[in-house]
C-alpha cells in the first residue's frame, strides 16, 4: 500500500465519518472531530493527494470528499478496526438459531436470513443446503410383490425419496437383497453429484447375472437422485435499501429491487464454495446490476461439508466491520446447529 501513516489516518477517519453520516467530509470536520494533531490546511492537502491517488472522490466543487471503491478496499483490508458484538446481539443470534433448530431445516435458514437482516439493516440472502452436496446414506429395495419394487434413497441430509419400479419379470427376495447390497457397497458415501455414468457402469459390472433386473431398477434410482433439488434461497430486508440516501432516487431503488426478483441471478451471487468470507465493493462486482453496491458473502457447513451460502447486500457505504462480526458469529452458531440437527436425524 502506497500510503504513509498520515494519509492512512486521514483516509481512515474520513471513511469512518462518511459511513456514519453519508455526507461528504471536509478537512475542517476531520480536524475538529478526530484530533489528529495536524491543521485543517494539512488535512486538506492530504485529502487532495488521496484524491489524486484514486482513494477519494469529490462529488461537487468546493464540497468535501467521499471514498472511492479503491478507498473502501484499502479501508477494509488494512485500516478498519475489528468490531465486537454486544452480549445482547450474540444472545439474539444464538437464541434465534437454536430456537429455529427445534423445527425443520427451512425454518432454521429462514430465521437466519430474517435475524441477519434485522441486525445488519441490509438485504440478506441465504441459500438452503444444496442437496447435490449431500451423500447417499442408504439405499433400500423393498419388494411389494414379485413384480413390483420400491426404491428408497436416504441422504445424510435426512432427505428421503422413494419410487416404484414395475419389473418385466419376477424377482426373488434373495436376488433383490444381493442387488441392494451391491448398490449400497458402491454408492454409499458418494455425493449425489459424484454419481455419474462411470460410477453406474462400475456398479453394472458387479451385478453379473442380475443385469436385466438391475437395468430396470437403475433408471428409477437415478431419477430419484436427480429430483433431489438444490433447495431454495431466502431473501429478507429488500426494503432496507430505502433507509440509505444513496437510494433516494426512485429509478436507482427500482433497479435494485428488480435485481432481487431474479432468483437465478441471486444464486450466481452466492455460487462460490470458498469457505473464506469475501467482500466485493462496487465495481469489483462482476455483475453490472450491483456495481453501486457492496456484497459480503460467506458459506456455512454441515460437519466438514460446505452446503450453503450467506450474502449481505448494501450500499458501498456499508458498516463493514459490524457486518463481518455478525457474519462470523452467525456462521459459527449456524454450523453447530445444523450439524447437531443432521446428527440427530
From TrEMBL:
InterPro entries: GAF-like_dom_sf, HrcA, HrcA_C, WH-like_DNA-bd_sf, WH_DNA-bd_sf, WHTH_HrcA_DNA-bd, WHTH_transcript_rep_HrcA_IDD. It comes from the Bacteria. Residues 3-73 form the Winged helix-turn-helix transcription repressor HrcA DNA-binding domain. GO terms for biological process: negative regulation of DNA-templated transcription. Coiled coil: none annotated. One of its GO terms (molecular function) is DNA binding. Residues 106-323 form the Heat-inducible transcription repressor HrcA C-terminal domain. Keywords: Repressor, Stress response, Transcription, Transcription regulation. HAMAP family: HrcA. Negative regulator of class I heat shock genes (grpE-dnaK-dnaJ and groELS operons). Prevents heat-shock induction of these operons. Belongs to the HrcA family. This is Heat-inducible transcription repressor HrcA.
Amino acid at each position: 500500500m502506497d500510503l504513509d501513516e498520515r494519509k492512512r489516518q486521514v483516509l481512515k477517519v474520513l471513511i469512518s465519518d462518511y459511513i456514519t453520516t453519508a455526507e461528504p467530509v471536509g478537512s475542517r470536520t476531520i480536524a475538529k472531530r478526530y484530533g489528529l494533531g495536524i491543521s485543517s490546511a494539512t488535512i486538506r492537502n492530504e485529502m487532495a493527494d488521496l484524491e489524486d491517488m484514486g482513494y477519494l472522490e469529490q462529488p461537487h466543487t468546493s464540497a468535501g470528499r467521499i471514498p472511492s471503491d479503491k478507498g473502501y478496499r484499502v479501508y477494509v483490508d488494512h485500516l478498519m478496526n475489528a468490531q465486537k458484538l454486544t452480549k445482547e446481539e450474540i444472545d439474539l443470534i444464538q437464541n434465534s438459531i437454536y430456537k429455529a433448530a427445534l423445527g425443520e431445516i427451512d425454518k432454521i435458514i429462514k430465521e437466519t436470513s430474517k435475524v441477519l437482516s434485522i441486525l445488519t439493516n441490509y438485504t440478506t440472502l441465504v441459500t438452503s443446503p444444496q442437496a447435490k452436496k449431500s451423500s447417499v446414506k442408504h439405499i433400500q429395495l423393498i419388494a411389494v410383490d414379485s413384480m413390483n419394487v420400491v426404491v428408497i434413497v436416504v441422504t445424510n441430509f435426512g432427505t428421503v425419496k422413494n419410487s416404484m419400479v414395475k419389473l418385466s419379470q419376477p424377482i426373488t427376495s434373495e436376488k433383490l437383497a444381493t442387488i441392494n447390497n451391491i448398490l449400497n457397497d458402491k454408492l454409499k458415501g458418494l455425493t449425489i453429484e459424484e454419481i455419474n455414468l462411470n460410477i453406474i457402469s462400475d456398479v453394472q459390472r458387479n451385478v453379473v447375472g442380475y443385469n436385466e433386473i438391475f437395468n430396470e431398477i437403475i433408471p428409477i434410482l437415478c431419477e430419484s437422485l436427480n429430483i433431489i433439488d438444490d433447495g431454495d434461497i431466502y431473501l429478507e430486508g429488500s426494503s432496507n435499501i430505502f433507509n440509505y440516501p444513496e437510494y433516494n432516487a426512485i429509478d436507482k431503488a427500482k433497479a435494485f429491487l428488480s435485481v432481487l426478483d431474479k432468483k437465478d441471478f441471486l444464486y450466481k451471487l452466492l455460487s462460490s464454495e470458498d469457505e473464506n468470507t469475501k467482500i466485493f465493493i462496487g465495481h469489483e462486482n462482476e455483475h453490472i446490476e450491483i456495481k453501486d453496491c457492496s456484497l459480503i458473502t460467506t458459506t456455512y457447513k454441515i460437519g466438514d461439508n460446505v452446503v450453503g451460502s450467506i450474502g449481505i447486500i448494501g450500499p458501498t457505504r456499508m458498516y463493514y466491520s459490524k457486518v463481518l462480526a455478525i457474519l462470523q458469529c452467525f456462521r459459527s452458531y449456524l454450523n453447530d446447529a445444523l450439524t447437531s440437527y443432521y446428527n440427530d436425524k
